[in-house]
Design goal:
42% of the residues lie in helices and 12% in strands. By secondary structure, the chain is an alpha/beta fold. The protein has an eight-stranded parallel beta sheet with strand order 2-1-3-8-7-4-5-6, sandwiched between helices. α5 packs across α6, α8 runs parallel beside α9 and α9 packs parallel to α10. α7 links the parallel β4 and β5. The chain is globular, with a radius of gyration of 17 Å.
Length: 300
């Protein structure tokens, strides 16, 4: 049984006209249930991540700001969301959702979080719609509890996972791999274990060729016993901020390739959705749902 983390709190209310498509977190499970790809048995609601677990990846002073609503206006602007107790509660649920997905993935090969992939969150601050780095928290949880010895983070969001790269820059047990737009946010890039900067306007063939060139070699070299996959759909040609020309089918082929190679090497994976900013919310939802459909079909 493939498990999917979801809580209604994921769809956090935002001010009118906000550019972040928060509605997608509500629509993705609704669509998957409606079409019969999943049933309610696939879904689980995570608890709140305990503070001591969050502190595996984040500073106590920063967590205290989130818990007590003391972020400055400047800090809130960098994050892109106004602070609120509900927003902090959401982030703690998402983090626990990704941890739980790791445990479920060890049983079934894969588990997916409807939210998460908050890769712009650093140890001591949030940026780019990311407050807590759920993959970093989860990776350290696995390492601390002896559940993994070598972890590969596959970040295929169009934006570099700068927070994740920085958090793990001196952690040899975690290898960070990021394929992202060379001239896209964040404009100051951190150094991942391996960065593949993409030129603007590349389409399916070149994108998939680069992925097929690098990921198999990485898996052979790194030999991870656990993987995280950030399956951002902001690589789509329709995306407002992505600057790439990948089609809906190309995005789906990307997911298929990642899952198939992890299956081949028997590496369990936790998946989170990451970004997607196409003008039509239906495009975003369809692309994300394809990730779930692909996982459900390949790991059935």
């Amino acid at each position: 049984m493939i498990k999917i983390a979801f809580d209604p709190i994921y769809a956090h209310p935002l001010p009118e006209g906000h550019r972040f498509p928060m509605l997608k977190y509500e629509l993705i499970p609704e669509q998957l249930l409606y079409e019969g790809s999943i049933t309610s048995i696939n879904l689980f609601q995570p608890d709140t991540c305990p503070e001591n677990i969050v502190l595996l990846a984040h500073d106590a002073a920063y967590l205290d700001k989130l818990l007590h609503q003391t972020l400055s206006l400047s800090e809130q602007r960098k994050i892109g969301f106004p602070q609120s107790p509900a927003l902090t509660a959401r982030e703690l649920k998402i983090a626990q959702g990704s941890i739980d997905c790791c445990l479920y993935a060890m049983e079934s090969g894969v588990a997916l979080n409807v939210a998460g992939g908050t890769h712009h969150a650093f140890t001591d601050r949030g940026e780019g719609f990311c407050l807590l780095n759920d993959f970093a928290i989860s990776a350290y949880y696995l390492l601390q509890n002896g559940l993994a010895k070598k972890i590969l983070i596959i970040d295929l969001d169009v934006h570099q996972g700068n927070g994740t790269a920085k958090i793990f820059e001196r952690e040899e047990r975690v290898f960070t791999f990021s394929m992202h737009g060379a001239h896209n946010y964040p404009f100051h890039k951190e150094q991942s274990s391996l960065d593949i900067p993409l030129k603007e306007g590349i389409g399916d063939n070149e994108y998939l060729q680069l992925l097929q060139e690098h990921l198999p070699r990485l898996i052979e070299t790194v030999q991870p016993d656990f993987a995280f996959y950030l399956s951002g759909v902001d690589i789509l040609a329709t995306d407002k901020f992505g600057k790439l020309k990948v089609s809906m089918d190309g995005c789906k082929l990307r997911d298929q390739f990642v899952f198939n190679i992890l299956i081949k090497h028997k590496i369990p994976v936790t998946v989170a959705m990451g970004g997607g900013y196409s003008p039509d919310i239906r495009t975003i939802v369809e692309a994300h749902c394809n990730t779930f459909r692909t996982a459900l079909s390949l790991y059935a």
